[in-house]
Specification:
343 residues, Rossmann fold, Helicase, Ruva Protein, domain 3, Zinc Finger, Delta Prime, domain 3, 3 domains, five-stranded parallel beta sheet, two-stranded parallel ribbon, 17 helices
Length: 343
């Protein structure tokens, strides 16, 4: 296998090639990385929440127990069928473990690796792009024809049309994060109503208020450790009819942005400059809070927060327990875990 071309990504994610024992998804678009990883896991194991066919490992667990990755990949499913092993936060430290595994990979498992931006010299990226039993997918911002196709795909699902000037506006504003783009398009579809049309005014209303929404305020409160404010805001969102899964995904997007900025801080950049590199740019009123978060949250804490949110989304969809309760618990836990500012 090789690096999967953009035109082939959707088909590969829906039906991964059998010879691809390891699939690496990497790039700045964390939403797209997660979306494609979930699609591959579903294609391989059918139910991403099935504990017999899906294993989730952290890089730290693999470092503590080097044989763990290969053992999970070679384990047999008690219920039959192929298995998926999902690793979020993958980095070059995993390369040596994967090289050994790929010498004799299991034909009944796929290891799905989710990573952020990886330079061309990255050992993990080189391995996935060049090994015959691995594949790599780069996840960059949606733009041009790809973004237009995504807009039409989401709106077509609601039989909603979009005016040409509205399409131009949306294409100029969206695309940096796949999940954020989908959330905004769903909001547009709700504005227009099934069978309706998105006008330029609708697009400006849905997209133009980014940075001041209740969901953004909630994310900032959670990251700042403002538990009381966070609980009030999440209850306000529920009262307004916001789906708990949408709330969780909004938090994932925000914490992914913090993690992206924090990676620059870890590389030696000051927090303000790191936040300045984010695309799309941070809304100016939200920038001080984002700078504080990038300076205060460490990479391990951010990974734990993202893991908690992703588990919460799965639980909201599969356990049958009240989704609002599970979402509110995650909000409380994350805001309590936020680093405290020194006075």
């Amino acid at each position: 296998m090789v690096k999967i071309a953009p035109r082939s990504v959707a088909g590969f994610a829906a039906a991964p090639a059998r010879e691809a024992a390891v699939v690496l998804l990497y790039g700045p678009d964390r939403g797209q990385v997660g979306e494609l990883a979930l699609s591959i896991v579903k294609a391989v194991a059918e139910d991403p929440a099935d504990p017999f066919r899906v294993a989730e490992l952290s890089p730290a667990a693999i470092q503590d127990d080097p044989p763990l990755l290969a053992d999970e990949a070679r384990a047999m499913s008690l219920t039959g069928g192929r298995r998926a092993v999902r690793v979020r936060g993958a980095a070059d430290a995993l390369s040596k473990h994967l090289e050994s595994y790929l010498e004799d990979p299991s034909p009944d498992s796929v290891i799905v690796l989710e990573a952020g931006e990886l330079q061309a010299r990255s050992s993990l990226r080189k391995l996935a792009e060049n090994h015959a039993r691995a594949a790599a997918i780069a996840c960059y911002r949606d733009e041009g024809a790809g973004l237009t196709q995504l807009v039409k795909q989401v709106l077509d699902a609601h039989q909603v049309r979009i005016a040409p000037d509205a399409m131009r506006y949306v294409s100029a504003q969206l695309g940096a994060d796949r999940q954020s783009t989908r959330n905004t398009l769903e909001k547009l579809a709700l504005y227009a109503g099934d069978g309706g049309q998105v006008t330029l005014e609708d697009a400006e209303a849905a997209v133009g208020d980014i940075g001041e929404s209740t969901l953004d305020a909630l994310a900032q409160a959670v990251a700042a450790g403002q538990s009381g404010a966070a609980q009030r805001l999440v209850q306000k969102l529920f009262a307004e009819g916001t789906n708990p899964v949408q709330v969780v995904r909004g938090l994932v997007r925000h914490f992914s942005r913090i993690a992206e900025a924090r990676a620059h801080v870890d590389a030696g950049m000051d927090a303000e400059s790191a936040v300045g590199k984010l695309r799309p740019p941070v809304f100016f009123r939200a920038k001080p809070a984002m700078v504080a978060a990038a300076g205060g949250w460490t990479t391990p804490r951010l990974q734990n927060a993202l893991d908690r949110l992703l588990r919460t989304e799965i639980d909201c969809k599969t356990t049958g327990m009240p989704a609002e309760l599970m979402c509110a618990r995650a909000v409380l836990a994350l805001s309590a875990a936020a680093p405290r500012r020194r006075r």
